[in-house]
Amino acid sequence: MKPPLSLQQNFWNHWNATTREVHLDEVSFRQAAVVTSWLSQIDSTNLRILEVGCGSGWFCGQLAAYGNVTATDLSDQVLGRARTRLPSVKFVAGDFMQLDFGLEEFDVIVTLEVLSHVEDQAAFVAKIAALLRKGGQLMLATQNGPVLRRYNRIPPPGPGQLRLWVDRDELTTLLSKDFEVMELFSVTPRANKGILRILHSRTVNRPIRAFVGRRFERFVESLDLGWTLMARAKKRRPVPG
C-alpha cells in the first residue's frame, strides 16, 4: 500500500540530509558522467532542463552549465538549503505528479534513481513526456532490479519509502509508449553477495585494472550487471491523424 505523502516526505528529507548532503559515491558520479556526456552531444548551451527528484540538488550545478535548470523534489526542507547554495536554479518542492508547470516545455528532463520510488510508473513517464517539447530527451537512471535482488543485500524499505525496481525489459516497455529509446545500458558493477561479489571485489579488480584499465569493468557492465540502468530516450512525434 502506498504510504501517505507526508510519511514519504519525512523519509526523503531525512535520507537526503544524512546521505546526499553528506557524501556522494561512485554510483552517483557515474550517473552524472553519463548524463553530462549525453548533454554535451546536444548542440546548445541554453537548454531548458528539468530535473525530477533532484534530492539535495547535488547535480544541479553541473546541469546549469548546459542551460536554465528547474529542479523538483518532495524533500522541502532539503530544497530550502539547496536554494541558498544554488540561487541560479529554480527549485520547486512537492509531489511531481501533482505539480503544475503550466505551459512550459523542456528540452531535456533528467531523473536519477527516482522511478523505483514511484507507485504509478507509467503515469510518471507519461507526465515527463507531456512536459517535453517535440523531440525533447529524457535522461534517466534507475536501479537495475535483477542485480540488486540477486547480488546485493539491501536493507528493507524504510517507513515512507516505495521500492519498485525494474529490469531492462520492463524499463523498455515503460518508455516505448511515449519515447524512442536511443540508448539503454548498465553502469557501475556492484555486488556484496554471490559470484558477482568476487568479480566486483576491489582486491580482485585492482590487479586486473593494472593490466587492462577499466575494460574488465566495462565488460561486466555490457552484460547488464551494473547497479544502474541508464536510458536516453527521445519523445515521439505525434502521428498525424
UniProtKB/TrEMBL annotation:
<protein>
    <submittedName>
        <fullName>Class I SAM-dependent methyltransferase</fullName>
    </submittedName>
</protein>
<dbReference type="Pfam" id="PF08241">
    <property type="entry name" value="Methyltransf_11"/>
</dbReference>
<keyword id="KW-0949">S-adenosyl-L-methionine</keyword>
<keyword id="KW-0489">Methyltransferase</keyword>
<dbReference type="GO" id="GO:0032259">
    <property type="term" value="P:methylation"/>
</dbReference>
<dbReference type="InterPro" id="IPR013216">
    <property type="entry name" value="Methyltransf_11"/>
</dbReference>
<feature type="domain" description="Methyltransferase type 11">
    <location>
        <begin position="50"/>
        <end position="139"/>
    </location>
</feature>
<dbReference type="InterPro" id="IPR029063">
    <property type="entry name" value="SAM-dependent_MTases_sf"/>
</dbReference>
<dbReference type="GO" id="GO:0008757">
    <property type="term" value="F:S-adenosylmethionine-dependent methyltransferase activity"/>
</dbReference>
<keyword id="KW-0808">Transferase</keyword>
